[in-house]
Structure formats: structure tokens, C-alpha cells
Amino acid sequence: MKIAEKSPKSSAFIYWKIVQFIFWLMGIGMMFCLVFFPPLGVTLFWNIVIPVAPALLVIATGVWRNVCPLATTAMIPDRLGFSKRKQMTVSQQQTLNLFGVLLLFSIIPLRHVLFNISGQATALIIFSLSTIGFSAGFIFESKSAWCSGLCPVHSVEKLYGSGVGFSVINAHCASCVKCSVPCPDSTKSMSPQALKSGMSHVTEILLAGAFPGYIWGWFQVPDYTSGDGFQNLSAVYEVIGALVTISLYLGMKKIFPNSRKELMSIFAAAAVSCYYWFRLPQLFGFSPLHTTGMLINLTKYIPSWSMYILNLTTTAFFLWWMVIENNRGKSWSKRPPYLTE
User: Fold this and answer.
1) Residue 22: is its pLDDT beyond 70?
2) If both were cysteines, with which of 143, 155, 184, 336 could 147 make a disulfide (CB 3.0 to 4.6 Å apart)?
3) What is the reported pLDDT for 338?
């Protein structure tokens, strides 16, 4: 039988728990805005929170893992002691990881026809994911089923977070119960290549190979705001870009079979750089596409060429950070002490 951890909770752990609770309350507030003040909620969620997330995952994945409101929700059954805490096998977790990637690829295109223009729909998908996460936490132990399994953001965490700048304390786990093997939070240089299996190989190809082209394709499509969005599903689910980069990734893996980690870093850097290359002009009003993705219109205050400088700067940073500097050797968070049997 597992007993309580040997060491008392540190002041840093308590501090992180307070921050975690604040972000959880902010998540509740976000849901309130999405339902009752949709324009504000959509702006806050899609044009502020989401644009910040990729850079945070690259630099400090552990910070996001600590404060994610969905993660906190999924951990409620465990924290309050009514989780069934079933052990999840490695095979089951790999299956959930793959489904998480497919879930991510399914949800993102729907932004163009629904979520970008409907606060209530965005609130509904967040609530649905929260319910799934809570249910997963009720059945399975700790972070195994949601935070390290089915969560669609977890796949991006592994793609972008293999070279984080620093490790933080794990605010969810006062002690380690070995719910995930390997633990994504405590494993150094965590990536989709961490497990050598057929299922993980498919997940790796979909992430590293498809994601750069998938992101590029997403930004070639406008938001359909006239009510005919679902008549354009074939356009928003266009995957030609993803197929091109998958083919390129597989080809380069054959040519450079001993450089898998380097290829992963290059394609991950390409994906996040592509995101900001298109997203930053959208945020500041310089996008030629009809989208709802503008945060503030700066076209009257700065020249259009400033966006190219900004894009080149962010691209150079991510290539330097993820490919050249490549801070491998760090984990997202520090492993807490193990529970004793």
C-alpha cells in the first residue's frame, strides 16, 4: 500500500499550488466570458491565450503543465481522494497519445467554421474536454490518462518541448506514483521519440512530419462567418500541406537515419516558426485573409514591412533555440520523491 511522501511540501510547491488555483479560476472566468460575452471571450482565448502558448511550450513546457486549467480539472478526483486510480499500461497510454493527435488535427480546422466566431461553441468544446479529462482522472491514476495521454495539447508539448530552458517544480505531484512510464514531466529531453514502438512511431510521423505543413495549410483558409462554414469542410480539412511535409520527413529520415533527433528539432522549429510567421500579422491587422484573428489593428501606426522583420526575428529565434542551441538534457519539471510501498 502506498503511503504519504517522506518530505513535507516545500514553500515553492505551495506557491505553485496558489498560482495553479489562480489560473484555474481564470479558466472559469474565461468560460463565463465565452458564454455570456462571446466577442470578449473569443478575443481573450483565441487571440491572446492561444498565440502565447506555442512559445511557452518551447521555452518552459513545465510552466504550462503546472498552470493548465484543464490539467487541474483532470486532477481533482485524485487530489480529493475519490479517483479509482487504475493503472494504465504503456500500450494504453501510447494509444491515447495517438488519439490525442487525431483529436488535435480534428479540432483545429473547425476553428475556421465555428470556434473562431462562436464563443458558446468554444466554451462547449472546452467544457467537453474538461469533462473527458475529469472522467479520465476519476478512472485512472494521476496524470496518466489525460495530461500524459489523451490531451491534444500533450502531443504538441512533446514536439516543442524537447529542449526547454529550465525545469520547474511539479505543482501537480507532491510525490511520484509512477503513473506514466516514462514520465513526460520528469524525463529529460522528452519528445515523441521517447518510446520505441509502432504506435509511437505513427504518432511521431503525424506530429513532426505533418505538423509544419498542416499549420501552413491552416493559414491558407479564411474564417467562414456568413453561416455557410460547414459547407466548406473540404476546404478547412485540406491536408495537402501535411502530406508534403510528411513525405519530406520520411525521405530525410531514410537519408539521415542517424539524425532522428536533429530532424525532429528542425521540423518542430519549422512548425512553430510557420505558426508565428502567419499568426503575428493576423494579430496586428496585416493579414490579407478574411479572419477574426486580429487583436489590434496597427496598420495605421507601423509600416507593413515591419511584419517581415518581426517574422524573421521569431523564425531565427526558434531555429536557434530548437536546432542550434538545443537545450537538451533538461526535463519539464523536477521529479518529486517517490511514494514508498
Assistant:
1) yes
2) 143
3) 87
Of 161, 158, 160, 164, residue with least CA distance to 180: 158
Give the Cα separation of 258 and 275 in Å (integer): 28
CB under 8 Å, gap of 24 or more: what pairs does 225-231 form?
A: 225/117, 225/290, 225/292, 229/112, 229/113, 229/114, 229/117, 230/113, 230/114
Average pLDDT, the chain: 91
Q: Return the higher-pLDDT residue of 238 and 84.
A: 84
Distance (Å, whole) CA 119 – CA 115: 7
User: Residue 4's pLDDT is what?
Assistant: 42
CA distance between the termini of the chain? 5
* 274-319 tens-digit pLDDT: 999 999 999 999 998 878 899 999 999 999 999 999 999 999 999 9
CA–CA dist 215, 108 (Å, integer):
9
Backbone angles phi and psi of 168, in degrees to 5: -120, 170
Provide the residue type at 55 as one letter: A
Q: Is 131 helix (H, G, I), strand (E, B) or coil?
A: helix
Which three three-digit cell numbers place residue 114? 465555428
Instruction: Provide the 10 A C-beta neighbour count for residue 268.
Output: 27
Q: Is the Cβ–Cβ distance between 115 and 225 less than 8 Å?
A: no
Q: In which residue are the cell numbers 478574411 written?
A: 290
To which H or E segment does residue 169 belong? strand 168-169
> Where are the chain's structural domains?
11-334
Q: How many residues does the chain have?
A: 341
Q: Decide: helix, strand or coil at residue 334.
A: strand
Q: At what angle do helices 50-67 and 11-36 cross, to 10 degrees?
A: 140
Handedness of CA 72, 75, 77, 79 (dihedral sign): negative
What's the mean pLDDT in 51-62? 96
